[in-house]
DNA sequence: TGGAAGTCGTTCAGATTTGAACATCACCTT
DNA sequence: AAGGTGATGTTCAAATCTGAACGACTTCCA
């Protein structure tokens, strides 16, 4: 269980650092950053709400809330899904893309400085494969 | 960054599973469980508020809130610290200890089933040492 | 011995998350 | 083609977290 304890503490401490850095450098929260990052990578810079929620591991209502916030900030827009009238597309705006481009380097720097760059090549490799496998297992048994 | 993505998703997904299991089996939240677990291991089953907050990686106000909840449930009591009149000791009650003993096996089972047991011995070893080192680094630069 | 400066835990308002309930719409069977 | 089943996104109240402000107490140095 020592492994678990360390994993848990590290993830919480990191979360805290990231939140702090993002808030200071752009007034964004970590969930909001994650949303922008996912959208930026998506084809057409847009994604369905449910799909996006799964991607960033958030509940549907949490995503609704955050998208509303990002919409107020002009970083994201909502559009109705052409193929499904129930569906809503979250679309990254130009301003959102610029915001992300401006903030991403600092964010990546924090992640590297506190996590990635502190691991040996073997540790990084082992952790990556372990996390990918675990993530898959967790997503499989929804 | 793939490593980071997987790490982040895994930690969030796991958090979710754990929360679900704890709530179903004992009406506890994960932070609450962490508090009980730490107290159970502490000498005299008691800890100073600030120390406990650092241990479970929570803000002071979040801890105040959760200790109040646990106090209402009769699982924890507050006591004034003999050596410092400002200080408050969170003390695990008998009921709290029993509750923890009852819930712990199921909790550990979830952590093992979704994380620990899915890793090879090498991965577990690498991850543990990596997490311990990272945790230490994060705690050092408070 | 007197503060000045720091620590301790709490409080408060505001922000965010959760889970259930809901209305809307798609899909599939008959 | 109609109805049942399931999916989608939103809403709401309640729970929780955050960060700053606060009063109470310690500690340390002059």
Walk me through this protein's architecture.
The structure is a homodimer of 142-residue chains. The first copy, chain A, has 142 residues and is mostly helical. Helix content of chain A is 70%, strand content 9%. The first copy, chain A, contains six helices and three strands. Chain A has a three-stranded antiparallel β-sheet with strand order 1-3-2. In chain A, a hairpin with a 7-residue loop joins β2 and β3 (88-92). In chain A, α2 (30-41) packs across α5 (94-114). The longest helix of chain A is centred in the N-terminal third of the chain and has 25 residues, at 2-26. Chain A is globular, with a radius of gyration of 17 Å. The model of chain A has no long low-confidence stretch (mean pLDDT 96). The interface between A and B is large, with 41 and 41 residues. Chain A binds a DNA duplex (30 and 30 nucleotides) through α4.
